[in-house]
Request: fold
Amino acid sequence: MNWFTNGSVRDQKHAERLFTEGGGCEHVEKDISLAAYWSAENDSLGRETYVYCKECWEKAQQEEDEEEECCFDCGKMFPRKDTIAYKWYGFYAPQGDEPLIICKDCKVLPKHLSRLARDRSEREEDERLEEEDDDIDLRYDVDEEDWTNEPEDNSDINW
Ligand SMILES: [Zn+2]
Ligand SMILES: [Zn+2]
Reply:
C-alpha cells in the first residue's frame, strides 16, 4: 500500500533533509536554496521524497491537473483539476484509506453533501464525547504536513 504526500519546503534545513532522503530536480541539485516544494511516495517502511524548484513544481502540477480521473459518483472521466479528492472524517492513509474522486458536478449533489453532513455530525459527536471525558486524550500527534495530500485549494473540503 503506497500513498502520496506533498507540501512546501519550510526552510533550507528542511530542504536539505528532504533532498538527502530522496532527490530533486536538476535545479535544486545545483542550488538547494531553490527548493520550494516536495512530494513523497510513502509505504509502511518509509518514504521516498523528491524536492522541486518552484517552476518544476508548477509544471508537474499542471501535468497532473490534465490527467483524467474517474468520478466515484457518476463514473465519468474528468481532468483532475475538475475533481476533488474527498477525505472523510477519520480518513487515515496509512491504514489503507484512499480519497474518493468526486467531480465538480457531483460534489454539489445530495449524495456527496450527505457524506459531508455525516462527517460533520461524527465530528461533532466526537467533540461532544471529548468534552465529556477530558481525562482520556485519544488524540495523537501526527506531523500534519506529512499527511497532507492536497494543495491548499481543497482545504475547504478536507477538514
Ligand atoms: Zn527545477
Ligand atoms: Zn461525477
